[in-house]
Amino acid sequence: MAEIPFTRVVSVTSADPRHPAENLLRPEDGGKWRGAAAGEKQLSVVLELGDSRPIHSLHIGNDGAAFVEVLLGSSAGGDFQVLLPSAALMSPSESRAGAGPGRVRLFGPQALVKRPATPTARWDRLQVVLSQPYCQSRPYGLAFIRAFSAPQEGEEPPPAPVSDL
């Protein structure tokens, strides 16, 4: 699976100067994006994709958000379309206690909304919408987000993560 790079931040609703949204362009550097203040109901960032290949999976590193939703859009205009419906990153009790804010979620093809293959559709924008309705005392955001295309012919997909019960 090839990673689809992000080339720039198109827009952002709120950002802490120490944790700007531009950090999401370089996930390997370990920088985070956080909202400017505690208590913000919703944050969003629009990232430009470096390639318009279909997205096969997403890896999202949380930084205190309770929910995430990801949408696809085009620089040519039009409405954003849902790619990942709202998904929980933390439970209400975890949010209130501040437990596990740095969890990582992997969303494979079964979690993503299927797009019809049309030659005219060019999705080159990714909008990430975060919310944290359960805790108003801490700012939140993302540690990272990575988008991957489907494996190429002959390329082996990475092994599935193994978890001990």
UniProtKB/TrEMBL annotation:
One Pfam short name: XRCC1_N
GO terms classed as biological process: base-excision repair; single strand break repair
Coiled-coil zones: none
GO CC list: nucleus
Extent of the signal sequence: none
GO MF terms held by the record: damaged DNA binding
Residue intervals of the DNA-repair protein Xrcc1 N-terminal domain: 1-146
Name of the protein in its database record: XRCC1 protein
Organism of origin: Prunella himalayana
